[in-house]
Automatic annotation (TrEMBL):
Domain of life: Eukaryota
Swiss-Prot/TrEMBL keywords: Signal
Keyword flag Manganese: no
Keyword Protein transport (UniProt): no
Gene3D superfamilies the UniProt entry points to: DD-peptidase/beta-lactamase superfamily
Signal peptide as annotated in the record: 1-21
Protein name, entry field: Beta-lactamase-related domain-containing protein
Annotated Beta-lactamase-related domain residues: 49-373
InterPro entries assigned: Beta-lactam-related, Beta-lactam/transpept-like, Beta-lactamase/esterase
Pfam families: Beta-lactamase
Amino acid sequence: MSYYQTIHFIIFILASLVVNSSEIIDYNIRGTIEAGWEFIYDLFQSNFVENRDLGASVAVYHQGKLVVHLSGGWFDESRTKVYDNNTLQLVFSTTKGLVAVAAAIAVQRNLLDYSSLVTRYWPEYGQYGKENTRVSDILSHRAGIPNVAASFDDYLNWTTMIHKLEEESPSWLPGSAHSYHSLTYGWLAGELIRRVDPKKRSLGKFIQDEISSPSNFEFYIGLPSTEEYRVSPHEFSQLSQHFNDESLNAMMNFFNEISSHEAEIPAGNGISNAYSIARLYSLLIGDVDHGKYKRILNEKTMKLATKSNTPDGELDLFSQTHTPFGMGFMLFDKTFPRLGQGSFGHLGTGGSVGLAAPFYNLSFAYVMNRMEGTISDANNRFEPMLTKIINKLNK
């Protein structure tokens, strides 16, 4: 069955669950799938059958070819609009992988050096104990500024956040330990990229000009207002709602607002879809579309970007979990060992993910609008897919 024939295969399959002897539910699952990959359809459908997802999308590239591209469910809780391949989704920390790519492009062009002091590019940063911070410290969550006192309004103003970071004192000696910089990572890395960019573009503009547009996909940091109608709002699962506090609910409300979509909050407000994220990661490990689109980073740069900067056995200072990082990428050799040596990518709060498994010449992405509060619940959506994919490729 050819790729294009599979369009008809999916369109005429009814994604259904027999609730009783007569009732059939259509989960709106549509898209394309190559022969031999139909098991992804079944697993994707089960996420709706078992009420893990409201609306979601999954995409897989193998050997530079799109083999799975499915969307399904509902755009929002009203269930009046289908979640389809035109839908865009805020993907929270999955955005960090894109920022890592932007930084690596600057390195590849000799504009930025991972081993250099931050003050070489951003002199104002060298204050209050941050003088010896290196670029690698910022990108691998070792900068010592995992948080900064700021309001939601502050998040919307790039200049305000940069001044706050310049005046912040580190919580530990930069480079001596690591802890996840959930939001500060984006402004820190983004300001470095902005400083070394000869055109002095904003990070979002740099990404559109140098990554998304040339590679023919959509991944926005700073959403154009013309695309807002396509963005599916997030909501917490019923189970998560029982454990949420007011601060989590306030954060969710903030990230669902138009103003937060249009701002540049590069650690967490990227807006994309599964197709685009899987395509991004495929382009990090090879060409796509029969060589029409060339890989974004060369092999030398990718090795630098995905080399661990987290000492073996070192735990995150605050979460006390083992979280190895390269230059902005999560490294999955130990957390998802089935993906093979050198796998990398980034997870996003609530269940989104983008990753590459170079050993298998594979990339994978999953995005959704229903947030799960625990990592295990969030990962349950896509881990069975990855397991079956690797089993298939190992045969």
